[in-house]
Design brief:
Length: 316
Amino acid sequence: MRTGASSDRKNPMISTVDEWQESGLAMRLCEGECFVTRYGDPKGYPVFYLHGFPGSHREGALADRSAKTHGVCLYAIDRPGYGESRARPDLTLAGWPAYQERLATALGLVRYGVIALSGGAPYAYAGAYAASTRVAFTLIIGGLPPLLDPSEQAALPALMRIHGWIQNGCPGLLRAEVRLLARRIRRRPGWLLERVERLVAPIDQATLAESDVRRTLTASWVWGMRGAGLGLVDDFKRYLTPWPEGFHMPLETPLRVIQGDQDRIVPLERVQAFVKKLQGVAVEVYAGDGHFSLPLRRQDTIWEKVRQLIETMPNF
């Protein structure tokens, strides 16, 4: 299993923007609006990595070795409002593809892939179904499905529904709650991990017990919440807003969805119900895997899929 960073210069405990930029791995794009870090093979096929909820670009450190082995240049983004990326409360899921395309232009990319985990999935789905983008393929791992209809809110976890009501009725209260949450995560980095461990399946608990996983995820959450947690607030709003047109058109590029049957964060049943509404897409189920074990303990298998997708691209 390959879960660690490949060298000291990619140590997930680097804690300042200056240290990242001096390492030559980080950059600010679009007039400083978005903070991006590069992992994997600098000369490899470009792929955007969309982190979970909450999270940051630092999650990408867990895929660094595998990306390098399989010839992938992985661009891990701090989504708007997380880490060092500027908040964009005006941005919707429908507007995400244009935002992503601006990043691709800033990096000089002609074509690129997208890999999304967990809460990064709604953005990846939006990008996959957008017209006139440079997305070559999309891979979603343990991904939260976007809403297609307001009635689907009833299937969301109770805590997310409650926060949705707060967002709609008293958004200032939600922002205050998230500021307190961000402060607690920064002051006691292991606090969120301890709570996540109580929610997940035993296979995920074992995965989260690995020292490099704990260290990297904790650093990712701390970095992501280094501001007032505005990214988390805006994510709630986007997750709870139904997609305006639905995903009913046929896809022009490959979309792969893989899911563990032991995932208690994003249940398999909800993913399958969503994907059934898509044309030409199916869920590949991994028996015995959960939310964290799937992307981490199955890295060799997953990254071989990435390599196969890349090799189907024209002019590869």
